[in-house]
Amino acid sequence: MQNSFNLPLKKKFYNKNKGIKIPGVLPALSARIYGDKSAFYDCAFLGVQDTLWDAQGRHHFSRCYIEGAVDFIFGAGQSFYELCSINVTIGGFITAQAREYPNDTNGFVFSRCTISGVKGVQALLGRAFRPYSTVIFRESFLSEVVDPRGWDAWHSVGHETNLTYAEVGCKGPGANTSKRVQWEKKLSAEQLQKFSKSSFIDQDAWRNLVGKLKPPQKATKPTKTAKRNKKQKSIE
């Protein structure tokens, strides 16, 4: 099943805890996404901690706005974020990807996105919520909000080689990788191809069907015949 969502930015997924300052932050989801083959266009997800639970399934996020502070894009979704604006409000972690096993196919790819934030705040690109956590930033703009270390092994300290964290062709003051953790991956062209939009989430071309989905039809006024049939059934 294919699903598509297109909401003007003035219509947003709100998090009731927006504005809480650390150490008073509490998790409160703006959205939880389990459906496979789901697409989100021009949507906004606002929160502080655990804003967007990208739980499972193949997803395409395009031109979306995502705001938060701690693990605010997390889960085991197999998702491609394209031309999205990601805003950090409090120092923390942007992603907490949850790839559990080496043969799993899930992960997060951020392509041509913009990472920005509140002045003076810094956040890591991600931390490992599960042993094979996978996050790729490619051709994105990283502002000074990005912590120079880049990543945190979290639960995988001592097993960092199992993690796939990489940056490819990124620009901006936060894209300087000279102080990144030593275990950040350097992907070959062949490896990077596996994280292209078509290879990573769209091998069966389901996104071509998304644009053909028709919106729900408005309910029509029952005809006299329909009313008569309904009345007859109720008598029986």
From TrEMBL:
<keyword id="KW-0378">Hydrolase</keyword>
<feature type="domain" description="Pectinesterase catalytic">
    <location>
        <begin position="28"/>
        <end position="203"/>
    </location>
</feature>
<dbReference type="InterPro" id="IPR011050">
    <property type="entry name" value="Pectin_lyase_fold/virulence"/>
</dbReference>
<keyword id="KW-0063">Aspartyl esterase</keyword>
<dbReference type="GO" id="GO:0030599">
    <property type="term" value="F:pectinesterase activity"/>
</dbReference>
<comment type="similarity">
    <text>Belongs to the pectinesterase family.</text>
</comment>
<protein>
    <recommendedName>
        <fullName>Pectinesterase</fullName>
        <ecNumber>3.1.1.11</ecNumber>
    </recommendedName>
</protein>
<dbReference type="GO" id="GO:0042545">
    <property type="term" value="P:cell wall modification"/>
</dbReference>
<feature type="region of interest" description="Disordered">
    <location>
        <begin position="211"/>
        <end position="236"/>
    </location>
</feature>
<keyword id="KW-0134">Cell wall</keyword>
<feature type="active site">
    <location>
        <position position="71"/>
    </location>
</feature>
<dbReference type="InterPro" id="IPR012334">
    <property type="entry name" value="Pectin_lyas_fold"/>
</dbReference>
<feature type="compositionally biased region" description="Low complexity">
    <location>
        <begin position="212"/>
        <end position="223"/>
    </location>
</feature>
<dbReference type="InterPro" id="IPR033131">
    <property type="entry name" value="Pectinesterase_Asp_AS"/>
</dbReference>
<keyword id="KW-0964">Secreted</keyword>
<feature type="compositionally biased region" description="Basic residues">
    <location>
        <begin position="224"/>
        <end position="236"/>
    </location>
</feature>
<dbReference type="GO" id="GO:0045490">
    <property type="term" value="P:pectin catabolic process"/>
</dbReference>
<dbReference type="InterPro" id="IPR000070">
    <property type="entry name" value="Pectinesterase_cat"/>
</dbReference>
<comment type="pathway">
    <text>Glycan metabolism; pectin degradation; 2-dehydro-3-deoxy-D-gluconate from pectin: step 1/5.</text>
</comment>
<dbReference type="Pfam" id="PF01095">
    <property type="entry name" value="Pectinesterase"/>
</dbReference>
